[in-house]
Design brief:
The protein is of the alpha/beta class and 342 residues long. The chain has two domains: 10-131 and 247-337, 3-Layer(aba) Sandwich (Rossmann fold), CATH 3.40.50; 161-242, Putative methyltransferase TM0872, insert domain (DNA polymerase, domain 1, Orthogonal Bundle). Helices cover 38% and strands 15% of the residues. An eight-stranded mixed sheet has the order 1-6-5-4-7-8-10-9, with helices on both faces. Strands 2-3 form a two-stranded antiparallel sheet. The longest helix has 15 residues, at 244-258.
Amino acid sequence: MTGAGSRTGAITMPSTGSSPNKDDSDSDTDEIGFAHVPVMKREVIEVLSQVPPGVVVDATLGGAGHSEALLDANPEIVIVGLDRDEMALAAAGKRLANHSHRVSLHHCRFDSLGEVVRSLGHEEISGCLFDLGVSSPQLDRADRGFSFRNDGPLDMRMDRSQGPTAADVVNGYDEPSIVDILRRHGDEPHARRIARAIVAARPFSSTAELAEVVRDAVPAPARRRGGHPARRTFQAIRIEVNDELSILADAIGQAIDLLCPEGRCAVLAYHSGEDRIVKRLFRRAAGEVAPPRPDLPPPPGTVAEVELLWRGARKPSAAEIERNPRAEAARFRAVSKLRRAA
């Protein structure tokens, strides 16, 4: 998905040519080992294949599974793909090689989307997709340091060319700061115990060391439920390293501003903090601003820019979760830009 740093860089697409045949499954692995499992692909295509002709920004390109399906579904769109992870961009370039004349790839954070779109000479976009969080290939490669299940260096940077690492966080933050990120980014109920154990045991150099200390810090009854005891801690540290939540609101605001009439913005979120931000921003853009107190009217000047395509968040089907258990946390929301008043 995406990593630290705000610089942008255009990526040259591979030359087109014959590509190996693929089956109809949602998952395939390219020659550099980047597995593609686009979450809620059918639902994403239903929403974004209906946008007006023009530019669709895939703000978290990953392995380009969603983008490939969108290009196949709508011949009147072009894709501007953004990602912080150069490994993902390389995989996406190979996957989209047969569509290279309709694709522009860029190495950057997704809060650079407005800058990238305008640099390409566009004043508006027809659609935008955010597929947030960490991808399966990033989790599965031990050398990336994202997973508590695979021993590797404490890195967790989506863009490995810059920014602090997970080791900088766990070895350098004071105890109150670690408590804060575990609570804010991980909803971790045992944040204080875990932070105290981390500070007492450091320095850390590997994911296995950190996972063991976190596991031992969690009370025994809690270890037997809710998955691995270190899951929330690793999530919280990853979000902190990559500054994920703080840039999300700005990026979604840029996308909504750039949408043409009847253009659509869709977001897949996997973390309660992400989904709360998306829900709040979409409702505000739809003119649903909460009053300062329940007994007061909404603030003046609340004008709807978009409409919600449905209420609440859609979730993956049971069949999809069975095929891809990592999809279970996904929450899907989307809006459509209103036509301007004549």
